[in-house]
Amino acid sequence: MNMIIFDTQQELDSYAAGLIVNKVIEKPNAVLGLATGSTPLGIYDKIVEQYEKKKVSFRSVTTFNLDEYVGLPPENDQSYAYYMKKHLFSHIDIPQDQIHLPNGMADNIEAECVRYDFMLEASPVDIQLLGLGHNGHIGFNEPAVNLSGGTHPVKLKAETREANARFFASLAEVPHEAITMGVGSILKADTIVLVVRGADKAEIVKEALTGPITTSVPASLLQTHARVIVLLDREAGRMMK
């Protein structure tokens, strides 16, 4: 595990974007695993900057997002499909048919999970971007006695819904269910980039990266992966010195 602590958000964002851009330059048909939420916003801005400077093209890239809310159509401004289009896809040259997110509006959610896993098996992820939840979740893999390896529906815990409520008009509007890649699917990525920001994440960073490997802290399973790059701001990394 390679860990870097940054003094500024700009440095962190530039470094993370550079990892992704350099992978695409090295391998034009790279498969990227992407995340949403507040953590990747600056990273996506930096990727768009590199594209606008003609440093990189995404014409042959394939993307898979970690998760999507159940019950939110892509045109809903709180869906992850909308988020990705707004912050990244509408600004780069990636073809629409090479963009993949779980379909939270599918009639059969279980069948949708099988479909998504089939695509992931056919196109292994080269580099997976991750954030970290306050309770140690990655994707929407919540702490549990048992974790699902493949893509699956999940009931969101109260603390996760409360953390995401800042993006909605009210807590009541936050969906109760999502589709997420499983921990097993995440760990199949060739390289994983874990990005964590903020003093409120310092304790879970330490627990996830140095504590026991346990399903009660899903991110602790990243300790089993051969190529994990951890990018922290000074506050999130304050207990890792």
What layout of secondary structure does this protein have?
Blueprint: E1 2-6, H1 9-26, E2 31-34, H2 41-52, E3 62-65, E4 67-69, H3 80-87, E5 99-100, H4 109-122, E6 127-130, E7 152-155, H5 158-164, E8 177-180, H6 183-187, E9 191-196, H7 202-210, E10 228-233
Parallel strand pairs: 1-10, 2-3, 2-6, 3-5, 6-9, 9-10
Antiparallel strand pairs: 4-8, 7-8
Describe the protein in words.
This protein has 241 residues and is of the alpha/beta class. It has a single domain (2-182), classed as Rossmann fold. Helix content is 30%, strand content 17%. The chain has helices at residues 9-26, 41-52, 80-87, 109-122, 158-164, 183-187, 202-210; strands at residues 2-6, 31-34, 62-65, 67-69, 99-100, 127-130, 152-155, 177-180, 191-196, 228-233. The strands form two sheets. The protein has a seven-stranded parallel β-sheet, with helices on one face. Strand 9 (191-196), helix 7 (202-210) and strand 10 (228-233) form a beta-alpha-beta unit. It is globular and about 45 Å long. The protein starts with a strand and ends in an 8-residue tail after the last strand. The model has no long low-confidence stretch (mean pLDDT 96).
TL;DR of this structure?
The protein is an alpha/beta fold. The chain has seven helices and ten strands. The protein has a single domain, classed as Rossmann fold, CATH 3.40.50.
